[in-house]
Design brief:
Layout (H helix, E strand, L loop, with lengths): L8 H30 L4 H30 L2 H29 L2 H4 L1 H27 L4
Helix pairs in contact: 1-2, 2-3, 2-5, 3-5
């Protein structure tokens, strides 16, 4: 007898929407990089938003994998999404620490950098939560 498969279309749609949000964050990171490269911006102002953009690209992949897990009901797919999401979250925190060490505390404490850092951390946490939900909602051991 085949193992029980739990599919969740609603969760898949919501997670797919989060993937679109991550694409928007990636665009925001690219925009800040372009403004920094072409204008008088300081590296500390753009660094956290560039981190946000790169992290959001990985986040879009995590969300798409979690969406697939919700649609297919496959626990192995959900495990992959969870592993990538946790790696991303830990990497975001580590890169923020490196930015603070390399560029000084102004790299994460100013208004603009702190906003980018907060969004990057919050987005990574949401990815961990979405991947965790995919793990709980799938059942094929």
């Amino acid at each position: 007898m085949a193992p029980s498969v739990r599919r969740s279309t609603l969760h898949a749609v919501l997670t797919g929407m989060l993937a679109l949000v991550d694409v928007a964050f990636a665009w925001l990171g690219w925009l800040m990089w372009t403004l920094h490269r072409d204008g008088p911006g300081q590296p500390a102002e753009a660094a956290t938003f560039v981190l946000l953009g790169v992290s959001a690209l990985v986040g879009a992949i995590v969300m798409l994998v979690a969406t697939a897990a919700f649609l297919r009901g496959r626990r192995s797919t959900a495990r992959a999404a969870a592993a990538i999401a946790w790696f991303r979250a830990l990497t975001v925190v580590a890169v923020l620490a490196v930015l603070a060490g390399a560029l000084g505390s102004s790299a994460i404490l100013g208004l603009v950098p702190a906003t980018g850092a907060a969004i990057a951390v919050a987005d990574a946490i949401f990815a961990v939560l979405a991947a965790g939900a995919a793990l709980r909602r799938t059942a094929d051991g």
